[in-house]
Every structure is written in C-alpha cells, then in structure tokens.
Amino acid sequence: xxxxxxxxxxxxxxxxxxxxxxxxxxxxxxxxxxxxxxxxxxxxxxxxxxxxxxxxxxxxxxxxxxxxxxxxxxxxxxxxxxxxxxxxxxxxxxxxxxxxxxxxxxxxxxxxxxxxxxxxxxxxxxxxxxxxxxxxxxxxxxxxxxxxxxxxxxxxxxxxxxxxxxxxxxxxxxxxxxxxxxxxxxxxxxxxxxxxxxxxxxxxxxxxxxxxxxxxxxxxxxxxxxxxxxxxxxxxxxxxxxxxxxxxxxxxxxxxxxxxxxxxxxxxxxxxxxxxxxxxxxxxxxxxxxxxxxxxxxxxxxxxxxxxxxxxxxxxxxxxxxxxxxxxxxxxxxxxxxxxxxxxxxxxxxxxxxxxxxxxxxxxxxxxxxxxxxxxxxxxxxxxxxxxxxxxxxxxxxxxxxxxxxxxxxxxxxxxxxxxxxxxxxxxxxxxxxxxxxxxxxxxxxxxxxxxxxxxxxxxxxxxxxxxxxxxxxxxxxxxxxxxxxxxxxxxxxxxxxxxxxxxxxxxxxxxxxxxxxxxxxxxxxxxxxxxxxxxxxxxxxxxxxxxxxxxxxxxxxxxxxxxxxxxxxxxxxxxxxxxxxxxxxxxxxxxxxxxxxxxxxxxxxxxxxxxxxxxxxxxxxxxxxxxxxxxxxxxxxxxxxxxxxxxxxxxxxxxxxxxxxxxxxxxxxxxxxxxxxxxxxxxxxxxxxxxxxxxxxxxxxxxxxxxxxxxxxxxxxxxxxxxxxxxxxxxxxxxxxxxxxxxxxxxxxxxxxxxxxxxxxxxxxxxxxxxxxxxxxxxxxxxxxxxxxxxxxxxxxxxxxxxxxxxxxxxxxxxxxxxxxxxxxxxxxxxxxxxxxxxxxxxxxxxxxxxxxxxxxx
Length: 859
Hints:
Layout: H1 2-13, H2 15-53, E1 57-61, E2 78-79, H3 81-87, E3 92-98, E4 100-101, E5 105-108, E6 122-126, E7 135-140, E8 148-152, H4 153-158, E9 166-171, E10 174-186, E11 194-198, H5 200-208, E12 213-214, E13 216-221, H6 227-237, E14 244-248, H7 249-296, H8 298-306, H9 311-350, H10 365-390, H11 394-398, H12 407-433, H13 437-457, H14 459-473, H15 479-491, H16 493-531, E15 536-540, H17 548-555, E16 560-574, E17 580-588, H18 592-595, E18 600-603, E19 613-617, H19 618-624, E20 631-636, E21 641-650, E22 662-664, H20 665-671, E23 682-687, H21 692-703, E24 709-713, H22 714-757, H23 759-767, H24 772-811, H25 821-838, H26 840-847, H27 851-856
Parallel strand pairs: 6-11, 8-10, 17-22, 19-21
Antiparallel strand pairs: 1-13, 1-14, 2-12, 3-13, 4-6, 5-9, 7-10, 8-11, 9-10, 15-23, 15-24, 16-17, 16-20, 16-23, 18-21, 20-21
Helix pairs in contact: 1-9, 2-7, 2-9, 2-10, 2-22, 7-10, 7-16, 7-22, 9-10, 12-13, 12-24, 13-24, 14-15, 14-16, 14-24, 15-24, 16-22, 16-24, 22-26, 24-25, 24-26
C-alpha cells in the first residue's frame, strides 16, 4: 500500500510533466484504435451492402469473376432460357434475369463524368425486384423504354441531377442517351458507386450486345426454404451443369467482400505501420521523462532506501507510475481513436466515399488492444529508468550524487552500437550487390532495422561529435549564450541522443521515401526519353478499356501519321522445356516498335509482328531456356490455341513494358473470336512531321465526348507520373507527421524537465547577470541544436536507405538515382524551426522563474 501511495503522490506531483508523455501515448493509441474502428466500419458498410444486394441464390456463368472487368468490355453472360429452368425448381418463389456491367461511363448533358473519383465503380443494369432489397424509388418511376434511365439518389444529389435531365451511358456497344425518369435511394450506405438503371431490353442489347442473355439470375426462396436447400434444388433443375456457378446470399456476399479484401487490408496494415512508428518514437519520450524524473528524485529515493525500502519496491513504485500513465493515456487514446475514425469518415465523404456514422463499428477488441498496447509500451519504456532507480545506493543518493553514468556500460553501449551499425551498413551494401529484387529486399529490410537500432544505441556517442560540429556553425555565432546552449546539450549525451533519435526516425523515413520517389520519377522520365517514340499516349485515368467509338475517333483525327492499338490477353503458355505458365500477352500493331523502342538481346522485334510469331522478355527466356526460333504453344483463355515462333527476345532492363510478350494484333485475331477480343488498354499516336500541335489539338477534340480518357504528349505523361508519385508521398508524409508530432513533444518534455532539473543553476546564472532574454535564447538554441542533430542523423540515414532501395529498383528498370536536395535541405532547415517551436513553453517558463526562489530550491 505504501508503494501505491508513493506512486500516486509522485504521479500527481508531476502531472504537468506526465501530461506530455500521456499525449504521446494518447496519439499513438488513437492512431491504432482509429485505424481499427475505421476499417471495421468500412467492413460493416460493405457487409451490409453486399448482403442487401445479394439474392437468396444467384446463378452466374462459371467463368464470371467479381474482381475484374472483362477485357472485351462485356460481362460474361448466360442464356435467358436459364431463367425459366430455374423458376421450375422446388422452393423457388421467383427467378428473374438481371444485367449488370461495370464497363460503363455515365456523363451528364455537360459531358461531366458522373462516376466516383475514389475508384468506386459505375454500374449499369436493369431494374429488378431483387433491387428492392437494397433500394427504393423515392421519386419518378423505373425506366420503361430505351429513352428512360433511373439513377441512385447519392449520385443525383452529388451532381445536382433531377428528373428530366439527360444522361449518356457510354458502353462498348455504343452510347445510350436517355432522360432521368426516376431516382432510387439506397436503404443501406452506398460507399460511393454510381448506379444507373435501364429497361431490361436496352440493358441486354446495349450492355451485353444480345437480346437473349443475362449476366446472372436472382432467385428468391419460398417462405421456409433455406438458402442451402434452394441452392441444391436449383442445381438439380440445371442438371448440375458445370457451365454455371451457384451462390447463396452469404456466399455471394463473401465473394464480393473478398474482391474488396486486399484493398482494405493494405489500407489497414499501412496505417497500423505508421501507428507503430509513432509508438516507437513515443518510447523515447517516455524513457526520457522517467529518466529525468528519477534523476530529480535521487535524494527522495535515497531516503526511501535508508528507511528500509528495497530495490524491488523502488522499482515497483516507478513502474506503477508508468502503469498509471499508460492507463490514462490509453483511455484518452481509445476515445480519441473513435473521434479520429469519424474524422476519417468525413474526409472520405468529402472525396466521394460515403461512410455513415450509423455504421460506426467499435469492436470490443479495439479498446482492449488500445489499452494493452498503451500500457505495455509505457511500462516497457519505463523499465530501464525504474531499474536504474532501484540500483542507486542510499548513501550516494543522500549525497545528491544522482545517478552517474557507468563508464563501463557507456563503452559497452558504444561497442554494441558500432557493431549493429556496421552490420546494418554491410546489409545495405549487400542490397546494392543483389542480382534479384526478392533477395535484395531481405537485405534491405535487415539493413534498415540494424542501422536504425545501431544509430539509436550509438546516439550518445554521436551526440558528442555532431552537436559540437553543429555548434561551431550555429551556436558559436551567439557568443556566450550559444556556448551555454552547447554545454547544456552536451551535459547528458544519453538524453540528447534519445531526444534526437525520436525525431531521427520520422525524418529518416521522409528522406528515404523522397529519394525513392525522386529516383522513380527520374528513371521513368529518362526511360521515356530513350524509349518512347510516340508523340501521344491515350488511356483512361482509372484503367478502363478504350471503347470502340473512342478508338475510332482517335484513328480518324486529322494530322496523325499512325495510331497503334495495344491490347492485353490472358493465355496459358507451354514452353519448349515442357513447363506451363499463366501469362498476359500483348497484341499490338506493327507500328508499335516505332512507338516504343525496345532493346533486343536476340532476334528482331519487327519480325515478332509477323504471322504466328511473338517475342518474349529475356528474364522469361532465361528461366525457360527459350531461344530465337523456338515454338511456344499459346492457349488463349478467350479463344483457341496457337503455336507461335519466337522471333525476338527483348531486354528486361527497362521500366516500360518490362517482361512484355508481343505479337501482331492480326495474329491474336486469328485465334480469338471478335466478340471476345479485348478492347484497347492504351493507344499511341504519331503526328505527321511539323503537325504536332495541330494533331495534339485534334486528338483532344476527338476525345472530348469521352471524358474518362485523356490524351497526353510526352511532357504531359512525365508530369502525370510525377504528380501521381507526389500525391502518394504526400499521403505518406501526412501519416508520418504523427510520429514527428510525438518527437516534437519529446523535445518539449526534455527541455521542460531539463529546466526544472537546472532550477538552482538558472537562478545562479540570473543572479550573476544573465537576462531573461538571454536565458530564453539559450534554451531555444539548445532546442534548435538537438532538433538539427536528430534531423542530420535522420536525413543521412534515410538517404542511405533510399540509395540502397534504388539499387533494387534498378533491377526493375528504374536505374537513375536522384537525391532530392531541395526537399532534404528544406526538411533540415524546417527542423530548426521545429526546435524553436518546441522551446517556446520551456523558455517562457524559465524566464518567469523567481531568482531567489530558484537559488533556494533543493532541485
């Protein structure tokens, strides 16, 4: 009980100093809990949506997949006669044919795309009774003919659409112009998909190209018939046909959920990874807090030991304070995490992904995980200071000798740090020497971990060297005040090292990702300059295939010398060594070698566009012992089997089309039926000499009716690559900001506790003439040099990581290393301002100290 009372008294006696550490725990726990709540809410939203939209039993073609759009732009279909056969099965109340396609774009009368900008699909289909499970018509009526269309309420509200407005639905079979006859609202949350409904005949003809087919059959059970029984009865009615796949409501929902699973998992684990970084940074803050609190209570600990307290009791007292800190910070963090999840939902809503707070899901495991992580991390961080407190001898403590550093342990720490750093450097060197990216990635991961831990361990040794060097450049300019700041930063190298390491981690990741991103952009730009001969590139911004009417508009644009089609087909290849592999092969026009200059290691690439010929990449050729003149059996998944002669082997030393296998479009057309032939994934164009500007304008004008596609010249394409990577890096930097905020709190906490620790010294300095202004400047300069120390280590470490990572990217064709010096310099300078900001409160409090009280203090 005495230990408990002591811990409670000390905790509340230092509540101001504990608050900053509690904030670090709070932020870290909030990020974890917010991520879990946000992703659980997304799962709940999609679970409800998929359950509501799935029939009791659904019949679909065996080859249909929910996780990809058919490459010919038309979904797999089944005969309309299947509906009648299913309707005769026992236990069937209703069976209706349905049409659904995601290979569409919907635009309004102003040619504005009605689709989501977040990647959510645009879906077109016919209105059926099964849709009443998830939707209700709130105004107007369902479409009754080819000139009418119904739209979902969310899309109507977002784009200010009303009944009578004209919409154009763009599909591979042509454009569908119709006016809005009705608006239907979701009964559950719609995460952002745009839905349009056509009448059944129009949907069949325009979306599937035939009047007598459906994409699936929705089956409703008679009362009392369970889904499993209904599925078996329907299978019997279809004579167990292997051409169809049957799914219960739960199975259909699970299949749809699986297609979303990878996206949600990537988001979840990426965010948890950044939360882990914040936890790691928070550990330094907590270690520093407890180390300094223990040092300030040295005499008190000595008295406790003198009156009979054991080492275990002293240790336990400090750990109990850590438990209290962990509980308070974690409880607040769990609550903040729920708030953070709601905030993320609002942000997603602003960019087009709707998530309702009515679906907010807080699983019981979320607060348990948050509390457990917060408390365990806090106790682990406080363990070393607590152990150090227990080792203080009573007499040494009573003499106020503090907790002097053990020289032997200091040298041991330095030795371990040097070994870890050297081992990490060796692993990074091995990364640069790797011949395969898979092997090199293991060395890279090991090198990152070892050098990070090594720099943390060796931090006190580095502090003595780096801070002195920085002081010559930064602090000596401020005369005696600068030298005092330097002395204070060097007074406890272990503390300075730990404080700087907290900032180092976040900035190391920033520097690493900046190097990787800049190198990728520079490599792609260099590759484009060397390889791309086409003047213009046409493609969709979200990976949609190019519909025939858009392709025709491009082909007939004036000022164009040639247009190259580029299609991707799925196939199973049987190689000369007898092995079989599933591959994607590229069918392109013979002009493609002019549009993309590929280096060949054997054979002649234009010859690969001859009759029944193809090319392969040198990596594939080496793996399967293929040489020019060999024959590969190509079984097209959407067509027949061909025997193609290898006419060229292309180099994989490129970032554009690496590993692609080429053949002539006419070769693919001989073996794949016209209605199964994929649409263009991308198209290239070459302008007539001197007509580049006119051709560019003509292509843009030709594609104006199809806003889902864009025409880019080489400059546009390079800028697009740069923007895409820049946006990704900005998101990562935003997530890393949490770790940097925690690191700043660490600097604030260290300075605040350092000021308390030096109360008497500050009083004496003020008594002999140091002004308040000089005192505040001294503390600010100390903060700046600590921040610059952490930034210098972090940026140096990050550039080392980024340089090693680029060597792996070089194996994938990204061979240019570019150090983004403007970013590095900006971050370094910004670190000085971070130090100034962190010192504001501690410097202000130090300046307000009463001189006489400070001199008389026992601290």
